Amino acid sequence: MKTNKLFPQVEGFLHGGDYNPEQWLDRPDILKKDIEYMKEAGINTVTMGVFSWSVHEPVEGQISFDWLAEIMDELYENGIYTVLATPTGARPAWLDEKYPSAMRCDEMGVRNHHGVRHNHCMQSPEYREKVRIMDSALAERFAGHPGLLMWHISNELGGYCYCDTCRKKFQQWLADRYDHDIEKLNKAWWTTFWSHKFNSFDQIDPPYKNGENCVLGLNLDWKRFSTWSATDFMKFEIDTLRGAGATEPTTTNFMEMFYDYDYHYMKDFIDVISWDNYPELHNNWQTDADQLLERSFNHALFRSMKKDKPFMMMESAPGLVNWRPFNKYRRPGMHELISMQAVATGSDTVQYFQIRKSRGSSEQWHGAVIDHIGTNDTRVFKEVAKLGADLKTISEVAGALSDNKVAILFDWDNRWAIDDAWALAKDTKNFDKTCMSIYNEFMSLGVEPDIISSDMDWSDYKIICAPMLYVLHDGVGEKIADFVRNGGQFMSTYFTGYVNKDLLANLGGFPGDGLSQVFGLRSEEIDTLYPEDKNSISIIDKAGKPSYSAPVSDYQELLRDVTAEVLARYDGDYVAGKPAITRNSYGEGFAYYVACRTNQNDIEFLYREMLEHAGIAYTKLPVGVEKHTRFAEDAKYDFYLNGNTEDVTVKDVAGVELLTGENVSGTLVLKGYGVAVVKR
Ligand code: GLA
Ligand code: ZN
C-alpha cells in the first residue's frame, strides 16, 4: 500500500489551528507568548487570514499584508507552518456599502443588510472583482513562502442566493442542462401537472418562498445549481491564486453532514479534503460512544472522497463550542480520544478553532487552546499539549492510508429528493440515520466501511450497501448489476430505485432500471407506520424454520414476483406471511433486499453472511469500542478507541502499542476513553 504524506516538509502530523493575531496587533507581548505556548503544546501549524479582509484592506485599494508577513516569518522561524486562507468568508463594511450586489438575497428575493459572514453572492461580478484583486495580491506576496503549506479557500462555503444575478445564472445553467430545449425541461419536471409548463428558460425563478416551490424537479435542480455556483466561486478563487503564481495545494473546509451542497461534486476541484468536526459530546440522548460513531461516519465520508491521500480535520474545539443549545466541556480524556479518532480514520491533522480566544464579540466564549486567563496550565491546554506529544510519538503513521472493502452509498441528491418527496412520513424518513446505522453495524464487527457516491469508482469494494437509494442516476442500475454479477455482495432496502435522476417514477415496478432482475423481486406498495404501530418479521433459519423475530418500524413494503430466496417474512398486519428480507443469487454474487425498517443489529446475520461471502475477517468488538486501521508500505496500524468511561478488554490483539512502547499479545486493556495504536 502506497503511503502519501500531505506535506513532506512537515515531520509527522499537523497539530494546530485557526489563529487570529490580527486581533492582537497592539499586544506584541501576547503574540510572543502565543508562540511560546504553541511550541510547548507541540503545535506546528496555524491557519491564518480566514476573516482578515478589513485588516488586509482597511480602505478600498489600500492593501497591505506586512502584519501577516511578519507573523508568518516569525512563526516559521519557530517551526510553525501556515495554512493561509483567502478572506472571502466575511466582508468589510466599505465593500458592501459600495458594492451591494456582494450581499446575498434571501428566499423572498430581498437583499440582506451588511453584517455577519458566509453570506456573499457567489455570482456577483462586483464581488468577484474585489476577490480577484485580493486573492491575486495574497498569492503574489505569499506563494512560495517556505512556511506556507496550503491555501484555504474562503470558509465553510454554504447557503443559497436568490438575487437577480443568481436567477439569471440559474436559467442559463438550466438551459445548458436541458440542451436549450424547454420541452426537455418540461418533460423532466413533469410540468403539465398543475398547469406549470414553461415556454422559455427566462420564465423560471428560483424556488422563492412565496413562489414556485412545489415542482420537485425545480427544487432539486436549484440545489444542484447552487452546488455548481459555490463550486464556481471556489474555482474562481483557486484559478486566481494559481494565475498569480500559487503552486501550493488547495482545500476548503467542509462541514459535517452538510446539506446545502453536494460535496461529491465539489471534491474534485480541490487538492485536499478537509472538514470541521464539532461533536455534541456528553449529551442527554446518546452515549459518548454513539456520538463518536457519528464522528466516525463523517470522517469516513470525507476520507472516501480522495482515497489516495489522508484528509485533514481542519477545525475542532479545544474544550467546548459556544453555539450549541447546551455547551458542555469535553470531560478529561475526551480530547485525546476524539482527536485520535480523526487520526485513526485517516486524518493527518488535528486542527482547532482556535489557538487563542477572541477577547470580544460572539466567539469570545468558544473553546481555545489559550484561554483569557493566558496561562499554559489550564486543563484544556494541558490536554492539548499531551495530545501534541502523543502525535509526535506516533508520527510514523502519518501518510498511511485506509483500505476498506465495504462501502455505503450516500448520494446528496438522493438525500434531498427523499426529504422533498411527498411520500412516507414527514418526520421518520431518516435517510442519514439509516446510512449511519448500517455503518455502525459493520463497526461493531470491527470492519470499517467507506462512504461513497453511486458515481464513484466501486472497484475496491466487495460489499456495498445502498439503503433507500430512491434516486437512480443514469447507468447505476447496470453498475449494480455488474457489481453483483462479478461477485459483489450488494444490499438494498425499501424505497430503492423509485425514480430516475429527474425524479420521474420508474415505470414497470420498483426497483427500476433493471434492478428487479438483480434482486429477484418487485415492490408494489410502501406502507408508512405510526410510531405506535407494531409489526415484526421472523427470520428463517437454514432449515427453513422461523428462528427469531425482530420488530419493524416506520416502513414496510409489500413485495411481489419474488424469485429470490426468502430470509425473513412479516409476522403481522396485512403483509403477514409475505417476504420481508430476500437474497438473490445473481452471477457470481448476491443481492440482498430488506423490505422494511429494522434495527440493524437484529439482522446482524445478514452482515455476517455478506462478510463471509466476501472473505472479510471480522470480530465482534466490545460495546463502545471502535477499531480503525491505517496501512503503510511496511506496517499496519490498528487504532482502538474506547468510548466508554469504564475500562474494556479487547481480545485477539497483537503487536507493539506505539503510545506506551509495550508489546501486546492476546488481550488489550483500554482505559475509560483510552486509545491504543497497535503496529503490526
Ligand atoms: C466554524 C467556523 C469558525 C468558527 C467555528 C466555531 O467552524 O469555520 O470560524 O466560527 O465554527 O465553532
Ligand atoms: Zn446572488
From TrEMBL:
Active-site residues, record numbering mapped to chain: 156 (proton donor), 315 (nucleophile)
Start and end residues of each Glycoside hydrolase family 42 N-terminal domain: 18-393
Binding sites annotated in the UniProt record for substrate: 117, 155, 323
Pfam families the UniProt entry points to: Glyco_hydro_42 (PF02449), Glyco_hydro_42C (PF08533), Glyco_hydro_42M (PF08532)
Catalysis: reaction(s): Hydrolysis of terminal non-reducing beta-D-galactose residues in beta-D-galactosides
InterPro entries assigned: Beta_galactosidase_C (IPR013739), Beta_galactosidase_Trimer (IPR013738), Class_I_gatase-like (IPR029062), GH (IPR017853), Glyco_hydro_42 (IPR003476), Glyco_hydro_42_N (IPR013529), Glyco_hydro_b (IPR013780)
Superkingdom of source: Bacteria
Alphabetized UniProt keyword annotations: Glycosidase, Hydrolase, Metal-binding, Zinc
Binding site for Zn(2+): 121, 161, 163, 166
Domain Beta-galactosidase C-terminal: 624-680
CDD domains: A4_beta-galactosidase_middle_domain
Residue span, Beta-galactosidase trimerisation domain: 405-616
GO cellular component entries: beta-galactosidase complex
Family: Belongs to the glycosyl hydrolase 42 family.
Protein known as: Beta-galactosidase
Organism expressing this protein natively: Pseudobutyrivibrio ruminis
Lineage summary: Bacteria, Bacillati, Bacillota, Clostridia, Lachnospirales
